[in-house]
Design goal:
Chains A, B: It is an enzyme of class 2 (transferase). Two copies of one chain form a homodimer. By secondary structure, chain A is α/β, with parallel strands linked by helices. Chain A folds into two domains: about 150 residues, Alpha-Beta Complex (Aspartate Aminotransferase, domain 1); about 240 residues, Type I PLP-dependent aspartate aminotransferase-like (Major domain) (Aspartate Aminotransferase, domain 2), CATH 3.40.640. The first copy, chain A, has 18 helices and 14 strands. In chain A, the strands form four sheets. In chain A, strands 2-8-7-6-5-3-4 form a seven-stranded mixed sheet, with helices on both faces. Chain A is globular.
Chain lengths: ~500, ~500
């Protein structure tokens, strides 16, 4: 039995030491250890284990429907019609929903959304997207050929970063990302082996972006890599700020001067709540700055069906628009996306509806508008509520939640708590959030998962729980923070 | 206006020379230049341009619904119910469809399939998959924790290859793939910068796999890289063979001895047509070979909702099962998939239905079985028809289409045609397929897109067009081949 013994001693081919080293460096806090623990606590609660709380409230992720937000009726009607076209004979469905469904089905091979589509996405949907962008941007033209439908915004962002990553050592592509950032960026850069270049948002000025900080960060990076990309998230995740038009102009001018490819993550474009704030797309500002900018600066802008008033995260829909992309590179992009065949067709369909919703004279218009406005109004109220309650807590300082779906308050932690955390080998805000979770069932993400200025601590909390629950949650955080501070002072 | 001029001279950041070099080497023939040309021809036909044909027939891709295959009613009913739960009150839907929908919705956050799910996929669906695998494999146990739901099989395959790719130069991971292969593999390896190791299937023995050829290929590769992975596609794509149980045992023994991680692409597991052939999963064979194999050999098996009798390509559903994966690596895998949040939930839902279809006493069982059997029977007839007609053509030699959805016949090309192709800078079978497309509107993929022994030429043709159309198509190919041969002889 020599062979048998030999086989039993066979070492694994794939071990932690022999695996892809880049993958090991990937971190993704939004679904990290604290969320693992939250899932475990939920399981324990179901099994009847006694806890100081009855339910786990997950305010860690922008998952609107999971927090009770209702889907838009019209969108779901059209999706049901597309998936089960027998319903086209059903009187319960409005005519405009049926028209939309027929149009999508006609564009599908064999009139089934079970067929593959063009890899870039269904033609007529890319036209819908282009018209949407033109309306949004006050008539600036949009070529459907520049639109790529995606499997959520993350898919598009990773694809563009992939194209841009090249070189070795000091010529390796560097990518500027805001700190705090949405950790998809750091995760994608780690996986691709690109160089992450941090620029810090100004917490004192409501997380605004200073060009001098971009300059500092770029200068420093040029010592050790080849900075080629500047990523902006607007409205901000996790920081909830909305960029002014002026700031966007400055950023574009900076990217033009410093030869940076701009990536604008604009998935929260409908989520603007604060008075005096408005969403300005990078595309629009770029084109209004004149041909010397609009003919030269390379820009990719990303959108998603997961946020705004739709919150349809599970359908994994999105698009990207690429502007001034070199034609040969664009052909490479089209080839690259073709390997994955096509984005999920239900997500593509949803994107068609988001960008071409019921029109004023159509039967579903009134209900659509009512649902859309109600959802956005509730979000605006919850943004305000969150900021207000958090700012009543001594030791918590929360900037206005101008947009997006998150607050990212600063928390002052006692020295003794910081020391104890470090003894546990934990970041102090992880230690804080873990304690919060164990004592109250509230699941937040520590600021260290997004990046923050050294010596400062934060957490990210979504504003998505229903208003009554959100109030309870905020008051529990308040109580916890006071006790925690007292215990460690 | 110095700034303006400066900007106008600004060179692009991202050019073909400065982009990711790995991406440039990616090729994907299934959606390559011939398909681009087919789309263009379709457009010209729509615009009224005269052609020697009335329609383009795309036999280039395994896209069943696009070729007229009907979706399974029960699957679409449940999907419609999940997307628009108001329909749960509708009498037109059978109770078992409603039960399935309620179960899925209950497992979704906020009872909406618009919520994110666990990154590995919804728990109860992974249980469905595990039970399906246990039934398929005669009771060999399957742990739902080893199941990862995916965005189609391609997503899973790329993810596992990503984990496995490490090292530099002579220590770089080498991955053994069959030639002919499905070009997702070569594309993924190019993108990851892993080393592609070719082993040739034996066309003379109905595309069977010889262990001596694996041995030859492995020995040669060890000179210049670190071979760690062996990929098998069974039933075969593009070659349509079904592996014997004995051959699978030999492959497993080879992988055990040579310390190779096994990747089994089993997306055509229901597509077995030839008498005397049966699908044997690598998992089952591995476990039946005894603990010295089943406790040691690392295996990842992939499945999809896109093939078999479902053909739901557009929904992008799939799963992978990982066996004997190192626990630390598995934690890394779980982390890695979390960055993309979750697979599309409609695709996950469909996978639940595929692995847990209507049971004998449920109201939808009879219709489900009727539809399933009819679809598979028609495919079996078309497999036979394809082989038979192609083999009537002098200069075309087609192996039996034992399984999957493709024929991959060898074509004998006259020397003068080969010469002319080379003068055009084209592969001879690309030259042949382009001519076929221009003259008949039939879109096939040249064998060179999949790899083939030097000096041999092939094309891949799906068996999916409706039987009457398939017959016409095959006879047109016959006529074309005869004329082409005559013209160049």
């Amino acid at each position: 039995m020599a062979e048998k013994e030999l086989l039993n001693q066979r070492k694994k081919v794939l071990t932690i030491d022999s695996m892809n080293a880049n993958v090991k460096t990937v971190e993704y806090a939004v679904r990290g250890p604290i969320v693992q623990r939250a899932l475990q606590l939920e399981k324990e609660l179901r099994e009847g284990v006694k806890k100081p709380f009855d339910e786990v409230i997950k305010a860690n992720i922008g998952d609107a429907h999971a927090m009770g937000q209702q889907p838009i009726t019209f969108f779901r009607q059209v999706l049901a019609l597309c998936l089960y076209p027998d319903l086209l004979n059903d009187n319960k469905f409005p005519d405009d929903a049926k028209d939309r469904a027929r149009r999508i089905l006609k564009a599908c091979g064999g009139r089934s959304i079970g067929s593959y589509t063009a890899s870039q996405g269904i033609d007529c949907i890319r036209q819908d997207v282009a018209h949407y962008i033109e309306r949004r941007d006050g008539g600036i033209s949009c070529d459907p050929d520049n639109i790529y439908l995606t499997t959520g915004a993350s898919d598009g962002i990773v694809t563009i970063l992939k194209l841009l990553t090249a070189g070795e050592g000091r010529t390796r592509t560097g990518v500027m990302i805001s700190i705090p950032q949405y950790p998809l960026y750091s995760a994608a850069l780690a996986e691709l082996g690109a160089v992450q270049i941090n620029y810090y948002l100004n917490e004192e000025k409501c997380w605004s972006l200073d060009i001098s900080e971009l300059q500092r960060s770029l200068q420093a990076a040029r010592e050790h890599c080849n900075p080629r990309v500047l990523c902006i998230i607007n409205p901000g995740n996790p920081t909830g700020q909305v960029q002014s038009r002026e700031c966007i102009e400055d950023v574009i001018r900076f990217a033009a001067k410093e030869r940076l490819f701009l990536m604008a993550d604009e998935v929260y474009q409908d989520n603007v709540y604060a008075e005096g704030c408005a969403f300005h797309s990078f595309k629009k500002v770029l084109f209004e700055m004149g041909p010397e900018f609009s003919n030269t600066v390379e820009l990719a802008s990303f959108h998603s069906t997961s946020k705004c008033y739709m919150g349809e995260c599970g359908l994994r829909g999105g698009y990207m628009e690429v502007i001034n992309m070199d034609q040969e590179v664009k052909a490479q992009l089209t080839k690259l996306v073709s390997v994955r065949l096509c984005p999920p067709v239900p997500g593509q369909t949803l994107m068609a509806l988001v960008t071409n919703p019921p029109q004023p004279r159509e039967p579903s218009h009134a209900q659509f508008m009512k649902e859309r406005v109600a959802t956005l109004n509730v979000l605006a109220q919850k943004a305000k509520l969150t900021e207000e309650i958090l700012n009543t807590v001594p030791g918590i300082k929360c900037n206005p939640v101008q947009g997006a779906m998150y607050s990212f308050p600063r928390i002052i932690l006692p020295e003794r708590a910081i020391k104890e955390a470090k003894e546990h080998g934990q970041e102090p805000d992880m230690f804080y959030c873990m304690r919060l979770l164990e004592e109250t069932g509230i699941c937040l993400v520590p600021g260290s998962g997004f990046g923050q200025k050294e010596g400062t601590y934060h957490f990210r909390m979504t504003i998505l729980p229903p208003a009554d629950k959100l109030k309870i949650l905020l008051n529990k955080v308040k109580e916890f923070h006071q006790q925690f501070t007292k215990q460690y002072s």
